[in-house]
Design brief:
The complex is a heterotetramer of chains A (148), B (279), C (344) and D (317).
Chain B lengths: L7 E10 L6 E8 L2 H6 L7 E6 L3 E6 L10 E6 L3 H7 L6 E8 L12 E7 L3 H12 L1 H4 L5 E7 L8 H8 L5 E6 L9 E2 L2 H8 L6 E6 L2 H13 L7 E4 L15 E2 L2 E2 H4 L2 E3 H4 L7
Parallel strand pairs in B: 7-8, 7-11, 8-9, 9-10, 11-12
Antiparallel strand pairs in B: 1-2, 1-6, 2-5, 3-4, 3-6, 12-15, 13-14
Helix pairs in contact in B: 6-7
Chain C lengths: L2 E4 L4 H8 L4 E6 L6 E4 L24 E8 L11 E2 L7 E6 L1 H14 L7 H8 L1 E6 L25 E6 L2 E6 L2 H8 L4 E3 L2 H15 L4 H7 L2 H5 L4 H5 L7 H5 L6 E7 L3 E8 L20 H19 L11 H5 L6 H9 L5
Parallel strand pairs in C: 2-6, 6-7, 7-8
Antiparallel strand pairs in C: 1-9, 1-10, 2-3, 4-5, 4-12, 8-9, 11-12
Helix pairs in contact in C: 6-12
Chain D lengths: L2 H18 L5 E7 L6 E6 L8 E2 L19 E5 L1 H12 L8 E5 L8 H7 L6 E4 L3 E6 L2 E6 L21 E2 L13 H7 L3 H11 L8 H5 L24 H15 L8 H5 L7 H15 L27
Parallel strand pairs in D: 1-4, 4-5, 5-9
Antiparallel strand pairs in D: 1-2, 1-3, 6-7, 7-8
The chains are: A alpha/beta (148), B alpha/beta (279), C alpha+beta (344), D alpha/beta (317).
Chain lengths: 148, 279, 344, 317
């Protein structure tokens, strides 16, 4: 069997981590291609239901990344977001979701190297968790009757 | 056993954008299995559930007349999840229609009578079907004088222009088409439907009125008909409630003991007067 | 139809005989945990008041798949919905309370109405033999007799059983029920007068509630315009617990779920206590507030269904909504208010 | 006269004088239920209505739930938790402070119907209450239960049994209890992640998604709840366990830090799910990180509407 390639949904702030990903690209820093990026105007926009939706649909991991505290383009969006993350992180960990499946980071648009390192770290840890079989919706059983 | 939840597979044959804001589109469907067209035997005033795979179903009045063979027409207003998805589908796409559902306008009991048909906005669909059906050579001689009153916001919002322009040229139907506000280049009538009706309302004797439109239009049209002497049992209306199954089972379209989908959607005003106004 | 006896020492064999070519569901557990379950014939309990949920879920599960389509299927067409069929298996339910059996009759008239037949309901309903268990000691919150039923009611049942000397008394009610009991070693016996006595006692234990009759005499619009609806509705939380537990409530929502390979169409229980239930796509809502919604529920149970079903009420007096409602909106008190409505 | 009767008497007197004096248009309190172990919400609008008001240990619903969106002047018969929720609603602009009169009732705990049913499984016909016991009668029996044995679990760790910000108290203060130390939760959290996931999945396996917990909750006043949103639809409508889990997790998050542990959700739940288990995980975090307790001041800001530059978040890399 080939190695497990996880699917990770990444929510990046437009003003920092999204730029860092760009910079990593133009700097030819290679990183694993396992994540699908959703661009947010600010991590403050991140509603926990987005994260649940990703897991429900079978994401093996979710990665949220925004501006360093104090650097928010909207002054304090990430401070508010941080409080949400604290609760969300605790809640999911408490009910038994491996914390390696839900990762958070602060990466500025200049930190391409941190982006590369973090991307590798996220994917490596999700790989270690294995496929998400327990925290997702059941596959639709189509079991169509045979057509005569 | 015949499963009433199972839609007939159809192909979108054509899509016509009907209004300047593109919120109305008329879909022409062809049955994939020609036998299904015979099974889908309907009369004007009935509706069907348009079934978009993976999205859901919406109940829509049938805009074509059974006298038009080979296809069925539905005009869909874009409001919710299913209708928005449907608006983005393309000719050739495969979906389903389930029906016909509900009761038609009582064309049998109206035989021998004059009929005035009053349409507001895009509720004209099932009334367009009714007029096409009434004007068909097999049916026309069974009815008296036919009057068609139709109003919409602007010339662009008037649906089925080819049809009513053709009817205007005939002498076996009186056609009055109006827009609500004057616009350059419009030579027809101007004014809300009740006002137009007041002007031209045919005498009540041996005449039935069929009204379809948004609640406000229905409400304001009734006094005009009362004034002209129409009795509640001769005022026929079509209700629109939220529906899911269309079979009188799932329960959400109840108006009193009646299920709008199974027992309606066509009711006389006399019937509605005995029911709670929950529509 | 004749009566039969099953003695205490023959009880386990009797249940084993019932399962010969069908599965057996009986109530298991007490109180909140009492539910209809597939049962080991040696462990059938006769000691319970009511199942926690009504038995409608055996015929109309909370979530039921109806149709499915595949985007890939090329026969006959991709995206064409196909019937998943009715997967009903031959079943016998032992221990339906007479109120719940009547509830199934009311729902059956909706699922198999004057114009359409619901194949998913019909399959399960017709493949299930229903053995009722009469109530010798109705619960204090029961009022089946006031709703036109009886603790020994027979509607909707194939066989009516009752506990008798740690065994059972049986009365067969349909040909199918008679045939079923004939396959067992139940002994014939004459129980007519015993049943009549027990029924009388059980009805007397409930005490009379007579205001339901007055509702029949009021017109729809008189009851609809009654002044008490806003105060009746005021404590309502709008949760719909009453509808989910009701043996006659049958409303559902149809939903599609899809992925990249295809999708299914399913139905899920829905409740008229929710504002979304009737809300149009345009935002217009014929029942915009809980006053209209509460009125709808009680009018439907006590007025609309009797009109459509020859006087049979949509409430069978099982008492579940009375006990479960967190705000204590009690159908008996509401009916009393409706009965007081003045004729116009 | 028992303490309960005295409280009932005081509530009626005060309710009458508030209605007669025009300080309130409606008094929201409890009346005796039509079934045993039940005090039902009751809306008194005339002095005569007030004679139906009662106080008992069956007053489990949270009446602050009826405040949002109301335009009348309300006098609210409130336990410690209800009063804190009313204060919270004022702080969250759901009801104006100047229209609210909190008629505080020092509360010695409410009875858990499920605990009673576990002790007395036979059908119950009547329930009568004295200050420390409950007498149950049913067909052919009668039993006495000690009230302290059948109180709801949230009532056993209630730090604000006497309403903190009432306009008036109808009885003498009752001593506070040691607050929830989350010891059971700490034990649970020490288990393996698989065990915890199994525990929480098992907890909600009977959920019908009737949303009675949401509707009984005074914090849940959103005009459109996320479970009812359709475009996009965040939650499937079936009984899929992950949709159900999503509902409970997000409901927990929405209530985080605002929950007063009134227990109305668990009271309303028809299948006895310990709904508050999710809230408690969050309450514990909120308390440890920001030592916040809701409903103790009129101008309190819920913890998710403010921030500290040094909020602790080591898990963010």
């Amino acid at each position: 069997m080939s190695e497990f390639e996880p699917k990770v949904v990444a929510f990046f702030c437009n003003w920092c981590t999204y730029g860092a990903a760009d910079l990593a690209g133009v700097s030819r820093l290679d990183y694993p291609p396992n994540f699908r990026v959703v661009r947010l105007p600010c991590t403050g926009r991140l509603n926990p239901k987005f994260i649940m939706e990703a897991f429900k649909r079978g994401a093996d991991g979710v990665w949220v990344s925004g501006c360093h505290p104090g650097d928010c383009h909207y002054i304090a969006g990430n401070y508010y977001a941080r409080r949400k993350f604290i609760l969300l992180h605790t809640l999911l960990e408490s009910i038994g979701v491996d914390p390696n499946r839900l990762r958070f980071s602060w990466i500025s648009s200049a930190e391409a190297n941190k982006f590369q390192a973090m991307a590798r770290d996220v994917i490596e840890h999700v790989k270690a968790c294995g496929p998400n079989l327990t925290f997702r919706k059941a596959e639709l059983q189509l079991d169509l009757p045979e057509v005569a | 056993m015949n499963n009433p939840y199972l839609p007939y597979p159809v192909r979108i044959a054509d899509i016509v954008v009907d209004s300047p804001d593109k919120s109305l589109r008329t879909f022409k469907f062809e049955f994939l299995d020609p036998e299904d067209e015979n099974r889908f035997a309907y009369l004007p005033g009935q509706f069907a559930e348009l079934s978009v795979p993976g999205q859901g179903e919406i109940p829509i009045g049938i805009a074509s007349s059974p006298t038009e063979k080979g296809y069925v027409l539905f005009t869909v207003n874009r409001v919710g999840q299913v209708s928005s998805f449907l608006h983005n589908m393309k000719p050739g796409d495969i979906m389903g229609i389930r029906g016909p559902l509900g009761h038609p306008y009582p064309v049998d009991t109206l035989k021998g009578k004059n009929i005035v048909i009053i349409a507001s906005g895009f509720a004209v669909t099932t009334l367009r079907a009714t007029v096409v059906w009434l004007l068909h050579p097999d049916n026309r001689s069974n009815y008296g004088r036919i009057t068609f009153v139709y109003g919409a916001r602007s010339p662009g919002h008037l649906l089925f222009r080819e049809d009513w322009e053709a009817w205007q040229k005939r002498d076996d139907i009186d056609v009055f088409v109006a827009i609500y506000k004057p616009v350059d280049g419009w030579t027809g009538k101007v004014g809300f439907v009740p006002a137009v009706l007041q002007e031209i309302c045919p005498p009540a004797e041996n005449t039935a009125a069929i009204i379809c439109g948004p609640p406000i239009a229905i409400k304001t049209t009734q006094p005009v008909l009362f004034e002209a002497g129409y009795k509640p049992e001769n005022i026929i209306m079509s209700l629109e409630n939220r529906m899911k199954c269309g079979l009188g089972i799932c329960g959400r379209c109840n108006v009193g003991p009646e299920y709008v989908c199974k027992d309606g959607p066509v009711f006389t005003l006399a019937q509605l007067n005995e029911l709670p106004p929950e529509y | 139809m004749p009566e039969y006896l099953v003695k205490e020492n023959a009880l386990a064999d009797f249940f084993r005989e019932l399962t010969q070519d069908r599965r057996l569901l009986t109530p298991q557990g007490q109180g909140e945990n009492c539910r209809l379950e597939e049962t080991d014939p040696s462990k059938v309990s006769l000691e319970y008041t009511n199942t926690h949920k009504s038995p409608k879920e055996c015929f109309f599960p909370q979530t039921e798949k109806l149709l499915a389509f595949s985007k890939e299927a090329d026969k006959p067409h991709p995206n064409e919905y196909r019937d998943l069929g009715d997967k009903a298996v031959a079943t016998v339910i032992f221990g339906l309370r007479p109120c719940d059996a009547r509830g199934l009759c009311v729902a059956d008239k909706v699922f198999q109405n004057d114009r359409f037949t619901d194949p998913y309901w019909k399959g399960k309903y017709e493949k299930t033999l229903k053995i009722g268990l009469a109530c010798l000691n109705p619960s204090p919150q029961c009022f089946c007799a006031a709703m036109g039923g009886s603790p020994f009611g027979e509607a909707g049942l194939d066989v009516l059983a009752y506990p008798r000397d740690k065994g059972l008394g049986l009365k067969t009610l349909t040909e199918a029920g008679e045939a079923l009991i004939k396959t067992t070693k139940a002994e014939p016996g004459d129980l007519k007068s015993e049943i009549a006595d027990l029924e009388k006692k059980a009805i007397e234990a409930q005490g009379p509630i007579d205001h339901f009759v007055a509702i029949n005499e009021r017109k729809i619009m008189e009851l609809y315009k009654a002044p008490h609806w806003p105060t009746t509705a005021e404590p309502c939380l709008g949760c719909g617990v009453c509808t989910f537990f009701c043996p006659t409530c049958h409303c559902f929502d149809i939903q599609d779920e899809a992925n990249e390979r295809g999708g299914i169409r399913m139905r899920n229980w829905d409740t008229c206590m929710s504002a979304l239930f009737t809300q149009h796509g345009s935002g217009h809502n014929p029942r915009p507030s809980k006053t209209e919604r509460i009125r709808q529920r009680f009018m439907h149970k006590l007025k609309y269904i009797p009109i459509k079903q020859d006087g049979v009420r949509g409430c069978t007096g099982c008492g579940r909504c009375v006990v479960m409602c967190p705000a204590n909106i009690d159908i008996r008190s509401v009916a009393a208010l409706m009965a007081q409505t003045q004729a116009s | 006269m028992s303490n309960l009767d005295t409280l009932t008497q005081k509530i009626r007197e005060k309710a009458k004088s508030l209605l007669e004096g025009g300080q309130a248009d409606v008094v929201i309190g409890y009346r005796t239920g039509t079934v045993p172990l039940m005090a039902a919400p009751f809306f008194a609008r005339t002095p005569q209505d007030c004679d139906q008001l009662v106080w008992s240990s069956f007053a489990r619903l949270n009446l602050a739930n009826y405040l949002p969106g109301r335009t009348e002047k309300v006098a609210l018969v409130a336990k410690g938790c209800d009063a804190r929720n009313a204060v919270g609603q004022v702080a969250e602009n759901q009801y104006p402070k100047d229209k609210l009169f909190i008629l505080g009732v020092p509360c010695s705990g409410q009875v858990d119907a499920a605990k009673v049913a576990a002790k007395e499984p036979r059908p119950i016909q009547t329930s009568e209450e004295t200050d420390d016991s409950i007498k149950l009668t049913g067909p052919g029996y009668s039993t006495d239960l000690k009230k302290e044995d059948v109180l709801r679990r949230n009532c056993l760790t209630c730090a604000h049994r006497t309403p903190t910000l009432a306009n008036e108290l109808v009885g003498p203060e009752v001593p506070s209890l040691p607050t929830d130390d989350f010891s059971d939760l700490t034990a649970l959290l020490a288990k393996s992640s698989e065990e915890r996931l199994t525990y929480f999945k098992d907890l909600i396996k009977d959920c019908l998604r009737c949303y009675a917990c949401r509707n009984a909750c005074p914090l849940c006043y959103c005009p459109v709840c996320f479970v009812d949103e359709t475009r996009p639809q965040w939650l499937g409508k079936s009984t899929d366990p992950m949709d159900t889990m999503t509902f409970h997790l997000l409901r927990g998050l929405h209530c985080a830090g605002r929950c007063t542990a009134c227990g109305a959700c668990e009271t309303a739940c028809p299948v006895n799910i310990k709904v508050r288990e999710f809230n408690r995980v969050l309450d514990k975090t909120v308390k440890e990180n920001w030592s916040y307790e809701p409903g103790l001041a009129w101008d309190q800001k819920p913890p998710l509407t403010v921030y500290q530059p040094n909020d602790p978040a080591d898990f963010i890399k």
